[in-house]
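Sample A.
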Amino acid sequence: MLPLALRQLPDADLELRIYGDQARFARYAAALRREAARDRRILLVGAFAAGERAEVFAELDAVVVPSLWYENSANAIFEAFAHRRPVIAADLGTMRELVEHGRNGLCFAPGDAASLAAQLRRLLEEPDLLSTLRAGIGPVRPAAREVEDLEALYLQRVVRADSVVRVPSQAG
C-alpha cells in the first residue's frame, strides 16, 4: 500500500525507506522490489541490528505503520516515539489509541492508499506540522515498567478476590 500512496504523489520530494527482513516474506518482498524498480524514491533497506536503531531513526522524519490488522502491542510505534519520530498509522485498534491524530502523528483509513497519500501530502505542504507532531510525543514507558504495572494490577485484583467473603447460595 505504501508504494500505491507514493504513486499518488508523483512530484513529491520524499523517500520511502522500507526496513525489514525480506527473506521472511519472500512474495511480499518480490512485489516491493518490483515497485522499487519503478520508483527511485523507494528504497528497500533490509533489516538492521538493534545497535543501529538510533542511527536509523535519526535519518527518518516520520514512521508509517500501515497495518491492516489489530495490533495488540504496536512496538514500531513505541520505537518511533522513543526516538521522537511522529507516526502515520492506520486508524485501527491499538494504533488508533497510541497515535493521536494531529498531536503525535497522523491517522489514515486502513488499507486506503489515497487516505495515506493525503496524510503524507499534509507533511509536505504544512511546513510546521512535523515539528508540531514531534512536540506532541509524550514520554514512552519502557517495556519493563509496563510489565511491572500489569503485575501490580493483577496482584491488586487477586488480593481483592481473596478478601471477598463468598456466601454459598441457598437452594430452596
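Sample B, a different protein:
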Amino acid sequence: MKSNILVVDDEPIARQSLSDILRLEGYHVTAVANGEAAVDHVRKYAVDLIVLDLKMPGMNGLDVVQVVNQVAPDTEIILLTAYGSMETAVEALRQRVHDYLFKPASPNLILESVKRGLERRELKLNERKQEDEVLVYRTKDGTEVDLMRRTVTRGSITESLTPAEGHLLKVFLGNSSKVFSHRDLVLLVQGYDVSQREAQEILRPLVSRLRHKLKPFPALLDRIQSVRGTGYVYDAEEN
C-alpha cells in the first residue's frame, strides 16, 4: 500500500518540486499551500507523513504541528525551513517533529528523511499493537515475563525491571529474529530519534543492565545477541 504524504508549502515551485520528487518514489502525495488547508486535510483524511514548511502566512509550521499532534498523533512530520535557528529546531523536536531540514534540501536527503519517518511510524504502530496483544511471555524452561508488572520469574527467583529495561525486553520478545539498529531501539524504548553514534551510547549501558538482571534466566539472556556494526537481535526459541 502506498504511504499517504502531505506536502505543505506556500511557494508554488517548492510545493510542486517536493510533490514530484515524492510521487516518483511511488508515494501518494497531496499538496496544499498553507497551514489552514493542511489542518483541514489532516482532519478529513489519513496522512502517514507531512513535509511541512516552517514560515507561512497565517498558521506557521509549528502551529500546524501542534494541531496535528492533537488530531493525528501517529502522523510523522518533517519540518523544512530556510530561516532556521537552534531555538526553532529545539522547539520542533520538543513538539515531536521527526526531522528538521534546511532549504534547499537535496532530493536524496528528503527521501531518506521520509523513509526513516515512515519506518519510525511503522515501528511505533507495531509496538502499540504488541502492547495490546501480549502481557505475559513464558519460555520452555518455565521462565515467565510479566510485562505489566515488569518482572521476570523462574521458580523462587524474581527480578524486577525498570520501565526502560522492561520496555526493551518487551521489544525483543515481541520481535524474535528481527535485527534492530541502535537507533530503532532507542526510538522504541525512549521515544525519540537520535544519531547512530548517540543511540549506541544510550543503548549499551541499558542492554548491559538488562543482561545483568537476566543472568538467573539463561533462556532469555542467551538469546539477546549483538549484531556487529548494526545493533541487537533476539533469537527465536527453538521448537
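Observation for Sample B: The first strand starts at residue 4 and ends at 8.
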